[in-house]
Amino acid sequence: MNFRDLKEQYRVLKTDIDKAISNCLNEGQFILGSDVMALEQELADYVGVKHCISCANGTDALVLSIMNFSIGAGDAVFAPDFTYFATINCAMLRGATPVLVDIEKDTFNISPEALEKAIINTKKEGKLTPKAIITVDLFGLCADYPKIQAIAKKYNLLIIEDGAQGFGSSINGKKACSFADIGTTSFFPAKPLGCYGDGGAIFTNNDEWADNLRSIRMQGRSKEDKYDNRSIGINSRLDSLQAAVLRVKLKAFKDYELKAVNDVAKIYTDHLSSIVATPTIPDGFYSSWAQYTIRLKDRSQRDGLKEYLHSKGIPTMIYYPRGMHSQTAVVNSNCNSGFFPNTDEVVQTCLSLPMHPYLNPEDQNLVIDSIKEFIG
Ligand SMILES: *Cc1c(COP(=O)(O)O)cnc(C)c1O
Fold it and tell me: Which of 5, 17, 100, 274 has the fewest CB atoms within 10 Å around its CB?
């Protein structure tokens, strides 16, 4: 059994993917070719924003967003403690200080109440200038944007939405990557929409920022003269081959994959919610299920279950085994520390189960039955 079955996906989409790759090879435009332009338009239309700017990976999408807002030394960036390191690495890389915020246990996302407290504390301390909130749509579920947008407005902060895991999810029909000043995503192969290597994208409705992002993804190049550079940028572009693959996969994602993962999630929840803590999806929210993560009673039950499932040939992952506040790079940089009781509990009790659109009923039943056997 596979944790995420990319081989099966390729088997199903092979004819179209092979054709798209071969077209791209025949066209011979390997960087920012016609597939990249077409994909950017398709992604912008799907997410429901004016501009999509593709780039080399999800981390660069965040770095470019931080650069666009000139966030750097002396600035505070608020981010959830429970996430993948890229969420705060982008800020630290540019010299800014992440202020970490505890999560809500049932959604795994940043706690709006803890966020507001962290902002108030940071202002009171007066050492850093609060600039932005980096929200994360963890495991495919949008953060609580109605509350977070109100907080951002109250304290005059920008929002950057790290939608690396949230592509395709929504709140009352409004799509992930459209909730913030700038939204970002990743096309790493195992993400909800993945390519066959690295890839990423940035979303915004702001014309000026979009123009700047297009420039700084190519060394700060001028629009009029490609050998004049108007600012300092990086080199972060999406390959045409990846765009060609993504266009085929985006179609499958829209046509049936997103629905398929929601069907898989419903079966897990129907069978498991009475014996373990299954993920909570608030009213009006729709997840893209980057992960299906359950919570166990304590660490020994979690580790025991992982071991037991492994013995049955069932792969599981611990997303994530530590919070950002215990990352060596964070500890060494003396970032503002706080209290993270929910992260501290979740890192000991979380377990992510096999989850992808091609999970077959026999395999899923084996996962469910094995968990029932173990918990008793
Ligand atoms: C994967 C991921 C990223 C980074 O994406 P890459 O394409 O691997 O650089 C950023 N944030 C989160 C939450 C992620 O899961």
Answer: 274
Residue identifier of the C-alpha nearest atom 6 of ligand 1: 58
- Asked if residue 160 lies in contact with residue 180, where contact means CB atoms within 8 angstroms, the answer is yes
CA of 10 to the centre of ligand 1 (A): 22
Kindly give the distance from the C-alpha atom of residue 59 to the centroid of ligand 1, in angstroms, as a whole number.
6
Atom 10 (ligand 1): residue with closest C-alpha?
Answer: 86
Identify the helix (H) or strand (E) that includes residue 261: helix 258-272
43 Cβ partners below 8 Å, 6+ apart? 52, 54, 201, 203, 250
Q: What is the pLDDT of residue 336?
A: 62
Rg of the chain over Cα atoms, rounded to whole angstroms, equals 21
Give pLDDT, residue 376. 84
pLDDT tens per residue, range 56-78: 999 999 999 999 999 999 999 99
Q: How confident is the model at residue 335 (pLDDT cuts 50, 70, 90)?
A: confident
> Ligand 1, from 83, 84, 137: best to mutate by most atoms within 8 Å of Cβ?
84
* pLDDT in the model for residue 312: 98
- Dist CA 235 CA 144 (whole Å): 33
The residue assigned the tokens 């994360």 is 136
Question: Among residues 263, 257, 241, 264, which one has the least CA distance to residue 1?
Answer: 264
Which tokens in the block code for residue 79? 């981010």
Residues 49 and 161: their CA atoms lie apart, in Å, by 13
Centroid of ligand 1 to alpha carbon of 177 (angstroms):
13
